[in-house]
Amino acid sequence: MADAPPPGTQAVQRVARILRVLGANNRVGLKVADIAFEAELERPTAHRLLLALCHEGLARQDADRRFFLGPFAYELGLAAAPELDLRAMFAPALNAVAEESGDTTFLTVRSRFDTVCLDRREGTYPIKALTVEVGARRPMGTTAGGIALLASLPQEEAREVIAFNAPRLPRYGRINAEILTRLVERARELGYALNFNDITPGVSGIGVVVPERPGLPPLALGIAAISSRLEEDRRAEVVALMRREAERAVASRPRGAARGG
């Protein structure tokens, strides 16, 4: 985990917490009271910081007094984009898995205690499980890809992540720290993450970690489908497909290949 922050950086930590909360709820926005609760701040403090963020373009407020990430946050994201364009790099993998499996496929990246959905492809099966939007930030372990990433961590680090996220987990379905711990243990036994009706009734998912490579952040491929499509007799086939495409994606660019190169 990250080292303890240096002294005198409390304001920066508070702003970072607010930005993460906004990022996790940017599709619907949040009001001051909700942001203060999520960021564990007093309401006047949260309101003061939000106004400052709006002034700088890092946040914005709509007519319903809900706050969202602002245009400057988008500009910073573009400037901070990695040398490897991960969405372009994994587009063929997402396309192949979605086409061959028929199910919705996701590319997920770790972001400290969270995961972020970088990209998504819808499968051809008529009933779809569109469980996570592109750009959505979720506590690590609330998606199949997140469970796979959590299971890949050293045990002590995984326990720290679960403990940190424990208060947040129930907002994302029928999940708590105890259930997530069992899902992580099962992923380690199986070699892939399996959420079979564990988080959302009737919806299941499988996640596999993308092979490590210098310069790549921790990534996972995941699929989500109605549970009848991920019964035991089909899982091995789906896992093999996802691993094959993850390995092809990692091998598709030479080391150090820059975006557009």
UniProtKB/TrEMBL annotation:
Annotated keywords: DNA-binding, Transcription, Transcription regulation
Q: From what organism does this protein derive?
A: Xanthobacter tagetidis
- Molecular function as annotated in GO: DNA binding; DNA-binding transcription factor activity
Q: Does the keyword Transport apply?
A: no
- Which superkingdom is the protein from? Bacteria
Name under which the protein is recorded? IclR family transcriptional regulator
Give the record's GO biological process terms.
negative regulation of DNA-templated transcription
Among Pfam families, the record links this protein to: HTH_IclR, IclR_C
PROSITE patterns hit by this protein? HTH_ICLR, ICLR_ED
The segment(s) forming the HTH iclR-type domain are 9-71
